[in-house]
Amino acid sequence: xxxxxxxxxxxxxxxxxxxxxxxxxxxxxxxxxxxxxxxxxxxxxxxxxxxxxxxxxxxxxxxxxxxxxxxxxxxxxxxxxxx
Length: 83
Prior knowledge:
Order of helices and strands: HHHH
Strand content: under 5%
Oligomer: single chain
Number of helices: 4
Helix content: 55-70%
């Protein structure tokens, strides 16, 4: 018996379509997420991003970000600025 060899990307697309059809979008995403472990070294990268930044600068950056978009129930209550 000779198996039909299809490209992996084609098989993956078909598998995702079957999962979506049979399980729905949310369950499909939850299923696929268990196989995604991410990449890189967050701790190392975070140290570079925050290098030289004070706590006051970080709080100001968060506050500025929150002002640029609609409020979210997950927003942190930040101390009021002394300005």
